[in-house]
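S.,

Sequence below, as promised.
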Amino acid sequence: MSKTRLAVVTMLLAIFITMTALMLQGNASTENVSEGMRYRVETLTNKLGVPWGMVFIADDTIIFTERGGKVGTLQTGNGKITYLNGAPDVWARGQGGMLDMALPPGYVAGGWIYFTYSKPLGNTSATTLARAKLTDNNLIEWRDLLITESASKAKRHFGSRIAFDGNGHLFFTIGDRGHRPNGQDLSSHAGSVLRLNLDGSVPADNPFIDTPGALPEIWSYGHRNPQGIFFDQQNQRLWLNEHGPRGGDEINLVLPGQNYGWPITSHGKEYHKPGAVGEGKYKPGIEAPKKVYIPSIAPGSLLLYTGDAFPLWRGNLFSGALKLTHLNRLTVDGSGNIVGEERLLETRNERIRNVIQSPEGWLYVSTDSGKILIIKPAINTE
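The prediction came back faster than expected:
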């Protein structure tokens, strides 16, 4: 072989090795330790928009929403992405767009899938609860169950996450739409947790159903921008996290008919001046948070872990952190008190939007950069 030809072959081989290394680096598995448990993190995909909601619709398939307005499926085995037909028009501005999605307990293929999204209403938008069915690659029988009384021109504080109690009800959250008085206004859905029957009707035992001037869907109020909710069926607890102002993000145990304070009480400060928000941190008649984050982490989701893959995490709360770019893990005692905290994935510098649990008990984490990461037990090579 001539020297020229050998040089060309050597150069091509070097390019091939470099490209292969870069490709492997993008999907590299990194090993970490938490409470003595070894786990690794893998990248399933980095090709999405802002994956806001996601849930396992089959053992090997995730259905997800992108805030820009798309709904798709993702095969966990090979990373194949398929976008679906039939999604509605959304108000994809600021924090609005296609938001959460969830499957009711006992879901079977072809059943109802629930969505929240910011629905355009002229020059305003309102957080809306809807449901549809999936057939092949089409969303069919789309129906808005509740267009909430939260219409605004504002581009922020839509909420909105969904949870089911397993007894025929769902909860979903609405932010205050950037208008603080909404948090204490029972004639508006904004700044509230709502509770409905699965067909969108109002349960007869909702706390404000007989209160004059109050909207009957409201379950709790005084919330700023709750973007995480989870119903713990074992302990019959409804957990919620929400964005505070400058400091003062909260995790709350939500009880029917209760006031969670915004904007009367807050642990946060004003954005443009040094003073605190509201009348103080606590006040009689207002439910105090179970945890406060100062500085704010900007929580974007909430999960209570129930799997077997990480037994020491069972019963822990997990929340994505948008501002402080990590996965937040909280230890909860038998009385519902938060007694410990750990911050995972900090070195990745990713705005973590959502976290869900797979059938194997692994954690799937979505990021605003368009990735879905997998946290799974490390391979034992000893």
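The chain has one domain: 29-377.

Coffee later?
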